[in-house]
């Protein structure tokens, strides 16, 4: 049986400093149960709201990501809360009392696909380091050459001689 869920962006615990979620999140997955173990395999679809790290303009990134996760009982986790990840450990999670947090599942998928350095496009020229103008929309009259202000006195002496 295929389970389909739509989760509103408001229902997710989103760290506003990384990304936002635009619109609803659609989940479609199958569940296989083997005793206390559950395997969820499916797809998450949504739109992430990101900010370009070069020009600081917001843009949207569509997400259509497949997942295949094995949920084990919390009792199988090692004591102390630390678990060593081996091999395919990134696809293993834990449940408590046979309850699986779909919001956490969704957020983990988003964090895995969100780029560390989001770019609105590969050709983004960013902002001028002098005046802050967006170089994608036009140019500025700033000089590209930086001069150390501590050497201004020496330049004046050189001009006088």
End-to-end Cα distance, whole Å, is 88 Å
- Count the strands? 6
- What is the H/E string? EEEEEEHH
Residue-averaged pLDDT, rounded? Answer: 83
Shape: elongated
Number of helices: 2
Low-confidence segments, ≥5 residues, pLDDT <50? Answer: 85-90
Percent strand equals: 25-35%
Oligomer: single chain
Judged by helices, strands and strand pairing, the structural class is mainly beta
* Radius of gyration based on Cα positions: 25 Å
Structural features, described:
A hairpin with a 2-residue loop joins strand 3 and strand 4 (37-51). Helix content is 13%, strand content 33%. It is elongated. Strands 1, 2, 3, 4, 5 and 6 form a six-stranded mixed beta sheet that branches. The protein is mainly β and 161 residues long.
Keywords:
161 residues, mainly beta, 6-stranded mixed sheet, 6 strands, 33% strand, elongated
List the helices and strands and how they pair.
Elements: E1 2-7, E2 20-21, E3 25-34, E4 37-51, E5 58-73, E6 92-95, H1 102-113, H2 152-160
Summarize the entry for a quick read.
The chain has 161 residues and is mostly beta strands. Helix content is 13%, strand content 33%.
């Amino acid at each position: 049986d295929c389970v389909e869920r739509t989760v509103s962006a408001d229902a997710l615990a989103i760290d506003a400093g990384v990304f936002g979620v635009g619109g609803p999140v659609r989940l479609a997955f199958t569940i296989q149960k083997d005793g206390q173990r559950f395997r969820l395999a499916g797809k998450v679809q949504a739109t992430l709201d990101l900010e370009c790290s070069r020009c600081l303009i917001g843009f949207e990134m569509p997400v259509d990501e497949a997942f295949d996760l094995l949920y084990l009982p919390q009792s199988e986790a090692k004591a102390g809360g630390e678990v060593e990840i081996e091999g395919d450990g990134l696809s293993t999670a834990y449940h408590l009392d046979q309850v699986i947090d779909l919001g956490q599942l969704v957020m983990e998928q988003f964090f895995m696909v969100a780029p560390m350095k989001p770019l609105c496009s590969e050709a983004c020229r960013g902002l001028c380091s002098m005046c802050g103008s967006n170089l994608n929309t036009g140019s500025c009259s700033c000089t590209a050459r930086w001069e150390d202000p501590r050497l201004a006195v020496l330049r004046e002496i050189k001009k006088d001689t």
